Amino acid sequence: MDLGLTEMQEMLKNGARDFLENECPEQLVRDMEEDDAGYSTALWQKMAEQGWQGLLIPEEHGGAGFDFLDLCVLLEEFGRALVPGPFMSTVLGGAVPLIEIGSDDQKAEFLPKIASGDVIFTLALTEPSARFDEEGVQCEASVNGNDVTFNGVKLFVPDANVADYMIVAGRSEKGVTLGIVATDQDGVDITQLQTIARDKQAEVKLNNAQGQLLGIEGEGWEALGPVIHRYTVGECAYMVGLAQMDFEISVDYAKERVQFGRPIGSFQAIQHKCADMVTDVDGSRFIMYKAAWAISTGQPDDDTQISVNMAKAWCSDATRRVVAHGQQIHGGIGFTKDYKIQLYFRRQKRAELSFGDADYHRELVAQQLGI
Amino acid sequence: MDWQDSLEQAQFRTEVAEFIQTRLPDRYRSGDDNNDETQTTGWQADRKSNDASAKESAINWADALAEKGWIAPHWPKEYGGAGLSVMEQFIYNQEMAKADAPPVGGMGVSLLGPTMIVHGSEEQKAEHLPKILSGEVAWAQGYSEPSSGSDLASLQTRATRDGDDFVINGQKIWTSGAQYADWLFALVRTDPEAPKHRGISFLVMDITTPGLTVRPIVDMGWQEPFNETFFEDVRVSTSNIVGEENRGWYVGMTLLDFERSGISGAIEYERTIKELLKYVNSESESDTKVRDDFESIRHQIADRYLEVNVLFNFAFRIVSMQNSGMVPNYEASVNKMFGSETHQRLARTGTKVFGLYSNLWSEDSEYSPMRSSFTRDYVRSVPHTIFSGSSEIQRNVIATRGLGLPRG
Q1: Which end of chain A is more exposed for a tag (fewer CB within 10 A), N or C?
Q2: Shortest CA gap A365–chain B (Å)
Q3: What is the CB neighbour count within 10 angstroms for residue B86?
Q4: Which residues in chain A are closer than 8 Å to B323, comparing Cβ atoms?
Q5: How confident is the model at residue B136 (pLDDT cuts 50, 70, 90)?
């Protein structure tokens, strides 16, 4: 029993932090809000050179063969640096499904290119119903051998604008069915949405969009189980890193900002907010890692499931409290575009909403508790 | 990161669990509401009880633990403890909490003993430590005063030198368990001219010393867990000072290398939630004390479950740090603050579950839901955010000592 990082994880974390401090400064984050693609191809390549896109990918396919908990260590740093771009889409929405249920050919075709940074993926799951359960997948899928055709609308698809491929979830008469769909075809129509976090989420209209079958027709929802677990906990890791940084900025501000002849951090009202922030950040971190650990070590399904729901329920609300305190501590300046704290506040909301917010997951926890 | 026992840890856990299963007296089994969450006066009261069976249970349990050296598992073996490592103590405390088994030896074991092991003279150790372990002597802590609560260092109880004695005058308050105790350890002012932290001495004394009066205080839950303690010209030998004169504040703050996770709280709250769930799920339609609109409360119960899990990790963090040779700083404050507030939220949620039935205080009315334990806990959890450093103080400490924010 231990709650510390391994030496290797410490190296990954510290290396990532240093790298991102240099390569993903605040200005880049701001620029990407206005940028059409929403990410820097130069940074993307450098990340690939670090081995990050391939972190989870088995070595035989050009990856590093690390485990999911290691990825969460990295994702915390991504949250801290507010890294823009299709990393989570590609790794969690692309590499993970391929690793879980891809055929040998599909793995051989796509995983090395993901690892090298040459191909971008995303997961097209949610629809206008905005549900996160199996019922929410209503997009039509029609299977013919190894080919699948999709008709329907997907909404809030991250990074569809730059993805080369989407893993699409549809429904045939046999049930939920997944396919790998190239975005560069007539049947795929992508419209950018303007979002609170100024990230890239799209409406994707599929009109006889052609793809290759991924996994077994009708068994797509079970196949998505491990993907959704990892994506959900990955978002928690991102939120933890984001909240940690928001908290650090706020504490620094409280030490610097002087009113009534003394730093505002010397007033108990501010001190108590900071104490609550660190409690929420630390609490979120450990509940997130517990879920990541359950996934990485293959804990029993029931335990893993409730760990994931608990992590997302807690982290969603706790990090929201943190960024709210962050704004409050900063007073007026925190409300300006130019000051950086708002970058964290808006991005926290996107992650909070992703794969279900606190109330959604709290309900699932309640059900698993038997009430 | 690993939430699972190693092989050795699992073996030790089994050893502890089996021991408790076979040796815990019936009196302490099941969810008997003997144990006030604020004190161990349940076992301590039994130890001095006039009720023969209560006293016998207390002695039998202490004897069983003594066989394993588990009266004071965290004391070094040379002083009669089991010298358990931090992780072993954690596991031991977890298993004791899971079984709701009372720890034994009170403050003598938990506070006075370790302090004396570090700061006491050989004579003091030889005189006092064995009697703590044998259960012959029970100890109480005299720190707080009517005018010195959060600002403990402002304490005024005065010890004046007179030959080979100190003469003590003043008053302590919230002296837990003093009515069952044989000896008292107290912080007293020996140098009123010095800066407040540097004029305090740590003194031990027989509670029956003439001039020392103990008067129980009734709390708002009709229990008497603590006392006022009055000192009128109480004469105590100067050889009863522990550590250096005027260094008592620092002696009293000794952090011995024992497990400080407070894990029993998290375990207890988890057990409470599980019992609540069991009750709610097993209630028959015709005989329900659970509120009709229970739907509205489900998410609050889920929240309490989340908080208990978060709390476990905070406690686990303390142990994990200690195990790696690190000294917990603000982490201990986060743990205490969060645990105490979770406790209160849990009591509140429990009372919400039973709606109007939460009026009931008595355990054995036909109308009592779960023996009205949540109603009583709703009251008894009130001081949890106040003692051992109030939530406000804990937040101050986190902010200043932990985060480096400037003091006001």
Answers
A1: N
A2: 6
A3: 21
A4: 2
A5: confident
State percent of chain B over pLDDT 90: 81
- A363/B310 touch (CB, cutoff 8 Å), yes or no: no
Same domain for A226 and A214, yes or no, is no
Residues A229 and A364 in one domain: yes
**Cβ-contact A304, A310 below 8 angstroms:** no
Q: Are residues A235 and A361 in the same domain?
A: yes
Q: Do B301 and A5 make contact, defined as CB atoms within 8 angstroms?
A: no
Select which of B95, B259, B268, B270 is catalytic: B259
Which pair of structure tokens corresponds to residue A316? 């969603």
Q: Which of A295, A304, A323 is nearest to A368 (CA)?
A: A304
Positions in chain A whose pLDDT score sits under 50: none
Q: Considering only the beta carbons, identify the residue of A4, A292, A366 that sits closest to B324.
A: A4
Q: Supply the DSSP symbol for A194.
A: P
Element (H, E) at A142: strand A140-144
Rounded-to-integer distance, Cα B282 and Cα B54, Å: 33
Do A236 and A205 share a structural domain? no
pLDDT at site B37 = 38
| CA closest to B330 among chain A residues | A275
Q: What local confidence, expressed as pLDDT, does residue B172 receive?
A: 98
Q: Which residues of chain B make contact with A71, given a CB cutoff of 8 A?
A: none
Look at residue B227 and tell me whether its pLDDT is greater than 80: yes
DSSP letter assigned to residue B253: T
> Quick check: is A2 in a domain?
no
ipTM of this complex > 0.85?
yes
pTM for the model: 0.93
Alpha-carbon separation of residue A296 from A2, A5, A67, A233 (angstroms):
15, 14, 6, 11
Binary contact (B399, A274; C-beta < 8 A): yes
| Mutation target vs A (from B307, B390, B403; most A CBs, 10 A cutoff) | B403
8 Å CB contact of A279 and B337: yes
Provide the token pair at B256.
Answer: 């011995």
Q: Is the pLDDT of residue B364 over 70?
A: yes
**Residue B31 to residue B69: CA distance in whole angstroms:** 26
Q: Over range B278-303, report the average pLDDT.
A: 87
Nearest-neighbour CA in chain B from A110: distance (Å): 31
pLDDT reported for residue B34: 44
Q: Give, for A97, the enclosing helix (H) or strand (E).
A: helix A96-101
Active site residue B259: yes
Which domains are delineated in chain B? Answer: 7-104 (1.10.540), 139-252 (2.40.110.10), 263-402 (1.20.140.10)
Do residues A237 and A343 both lie within one domain?
yes
Residue A55 lies in domain: 7-115
Q: Are residues A175 and A236 in the same domain?
A: no
Q: How far apart are CA A90 and CA A75, in angstroms?
A: 13
